[in-house]
Amino acid sequence: MNKVRAKKHLGQHFLTDLGIAQKIVDSISLDHPILEIGPGMGVLTKFLIRRPGIDLHVIEIDRESVEYLQNNFPEIRSKIISGDFLKLDLKKLFPQSFSVIGNLPYNISSQIFFKVLENRNQVPELVAMIQKEVAQRIASAPKCKEYGILSVLLQAYYDIEYLFTVHEHVFSPPPKVKSAVIRLRRNNRESLGCNETLFKQVVKTTFNQRRKAIRNSIKAISFNREAIVDHLLLTKRPEHLSVDEFVELTNLVEQNPLRDR
Ligand code: SAM
Hints:
This protein is α/β, with parallel strands linked by helices. Helix content is 32%, strand content 17%.
């Protein structure tokens, strides 16, 4: 069987180092069914199916890779989904919880994380190889320059571990950037203690102007800003706020609506 021809627009950089593949697969626990995103030619799949008791499903957008997987992994043929993860109805496929693994296509890794966030109560664990820079951002603590929207939103619901860095030369073709493997484990916060839709809006709005003090960037949200303009949180920049402080800020916004004149 011929190998799959790498397609740039699908972010196809195939991992060639089997030791690293094994290490990634060993990083995920088997307490739930597992969905592998973008198996390509199955370098992770091969190690995943060896793990006893695994219930593995894979989703791959590239038809050529799907055909390759069907021929080389007949034992999971009925669980190979040909399609786009971003369009997948996760609730229909997994009525219960499931974990996620993958060497992700870097061009859509943020969208994948946003989809995981939307389904956070169904996804207890995720192990993924992504661009090193994005991994650093996700794992970053407040007051670091990498700290941003994805760090706050993911850290609100997940414990994040930066596991290890992966160099360009272990891929074919090699990407232009370094990679890293991270693990997300759902924390025990069932709810944040604030309006969670507003929380997301506050985080996104303030980071959209990350150099500005929050009292300025938050003008884009409609509420009675004058009532809290002197609050200490509003004098800071978003990168200085922890998740708990964003929760506090969200509650301040919610508790001070605009009044009818
Ligand atoms: N897992 C393989 C490996 O480690 O060698 C391939 C990893 S490659 C970085 C990313 C894979 O994701 C490719 O096989 C690509 O076709 C697939 N992919 C890209 N976009 C996708 C999407 N929206 N849904 C599912 N798979 C996708």
